[in-house]
Amino acid sequence: MGMILVTGGAGYIGSHVVKALGQAGYDVVVYDNLSTGHEWAVLYGKLIRGDVRDQEALDKVFKQHSIDAVMHFAAHIVVPESVRQPLKYYLNNVTGSLSLLEAMKRNGLRKFIFSSSAAVYGIPDKIPITEENRLDPINPYGQTKAVVEKVLADMAYAQDLDYVALRYFNVAGADPQARIGEGKEDATHIITMCVRTAAGLRPCLEIFGTDYPTPDGTCIRDYIHVDDLAHAHLLALEHLLAGGKSRVYNCGYSRGYSVLQVVEAAKKVTGVDFPVKYSGRREGDPPALVADATKLQAELGFTPRYDNLDHIIETAWRWEQKRIRLALK
């Protein structure tokens, strides 16, 4: 089937992609510095601890393993933190990606799947958002993803690389069997925050902004189950391994839910009427982000399996209860 290097493969999204690769029969090498990832999250393959900015360590990995393609997830992802600490994000997300690409080029590797984000669109002109929408990020996190996408396009034009950039909308949920899920203690995604508040790990859920130009005043997002997102990565990999050309795809369900709708659904699924606190807007949050995912469906044959908000929350809730029970850190 081939051997795939997955950077950041011990993290939330990366570990679900590693699971999907392993189940599909691929050999996997996970490369992660474990700054936010966890050894317990790596269900398949070999884990090597290292940083993507370490050229010597990357060369060693490429020389010791017959890598066929690279999937890159090693990035900082918290939007408000990126506003407060932009240099941290540029050093890791941009410099780290350039370091990895440089090592790939030096070692003759040219198939690359990039973990991008809907944050590259900023405040879109229209909803839903197509891949042709202009890129105008409004926070450093989104800017780092846009910069790397530009580098990839330039490398592809120079015939140094074949890549697929997947622009994630809001990734949520967990492995339906509760083997892995979000493990960061300081996770900021709304569904994770809801289930952790319902579990009593937080005193209340804080909602940032109730005055957005949306029907109920809270932000609207397109939530995609992490296993559906992992499946999109396998389709992208098959495309590249079959000789496919470089592509960019939105990854979402083409439907949006407001923060208040998510909160109500989480209360219903968990059976807990947890307390909610309303605060002002966070820096860097667009009012609405909803994908037009028809290109992904038409070109790669992507068909969602878990396009149901209650189910997404239910898998996150089941995982959170297990995480608490086992005290996984």
TrEMBL record:
Gene Ontology molecular functions: UDP-glucose 4-epimerase activity
EC number: 5.1.3.2
GO biological process assignments: galactose catabolic process via UDP-galactose, Leloir pathway
Tagged with keyword Ribosomal protein: no
Pathways per UniProt: Carbohydrate metabolism; galactose metabolism
Record-annotated NAD-dependent epimerase/dehydratase domain positions: 4-252
Pfam families hit by this protein: Epimerase
NCBIfam families, A to Z: galE
Name the record gives this protein: UDP-glucose 4-epimerase
The protein's enzyme class: isomerase
Similarity comment text for this entry: Belongs to the NAD(P)-dependent epimerase/dehydratase family.
Origin: domain of life: Bacteria
Keywords tagged on the record: Carbohydrate metabolism, Galactose metabolism, Isomerase, NAD
Annotated Gene3D superfamilies: NAD(P)-binding Rossmann-like Domain, UDP-galactose 4-epimerase, domain 1
